[in-house]
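Changelog note: in this version the structure field was regenerated for every chain. One regenerated record is shown below for reference.
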Amino acid sequence: MDMSEVEKFEDMRGELRSNEPMARHVSWRAGGVAACAYFPADLADLARFLRSVPADESLYFVGLGSNLLVRDGGYRGTVVFMHGALKELRMDGGLVYAQAGVASPKVARHAALHELAGAEFLAGIPGTIGGALAMNAGCYGSETWGAVAKVQTVDRSGRLHERTPQDYQIGYRSVRAAIEGEWFVAAWFRFAPGDGAAARERIKELLARRIASQPLQLPNAGSVFRNPPGDHAARLVEACGLKGYRIGGAQVSEKHANFIVNVGGASAADIEALIAQVQATVRHVHGVELEPEVRIIGEAK
């Protein structure tokens, strides 16, 4: 989008920036710039912005950037940042209503405080609800869409819609919409009544397990590969002797083999090359094709 068109957005309450460094906004702390970036003030402002964006403009929605890599050449479209804007979290008739910019662990704690059980696994998902919906994020045996009663979406014209799980093909780390061109802006979750104190204790246990088993002290994007049927990506990578393997500033974590960490100065190209090298090695040794769980967008430098 040409920034000379900014006058079209004068009634927007959010912030529009050009050449926004995406390394500031992704958990790998690497990658290029977004040609344009919009930080909406709230849901109404986001809808207004979308109505003003040229129909041919490429759009990408980002939460905490915990599952994203932007190539070093950058993203030529507009990135819309949900975290900090779409942050409403409340009870709604027995359901938990959470907008897309709410961090998943907050939903877990909110449910526990309202004497609900079954949301605890969300404490182990480092991103936002929008990202969790888009990829059916999960951990510790549970998945996001297992608790979804309905979702709210927005289309390019700024219209809001309510959809049910029946409107999507939902699989392991996969969500496909029957209707294209809409983005998740909120969800209503159904959790069972339970012991809030026990749920809060379970959240503490899961967070402690995450700290103990994952390399959280270094920039990373969580699990890089989906687990293949009947196996674990981490086991396959470790069995290839790849723990500690490094390309530039990107390294297969020595703590958890399904994590790639930025040990200092990694470029997006380093990270993407390491992903490809791990895939090639696992394919050669085990005959298994590892599928990336992380999203990679943008242009190579």
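Spot check on this record: The longest strand covers residues 148-155. The first helix runs from residue 43 to 52.
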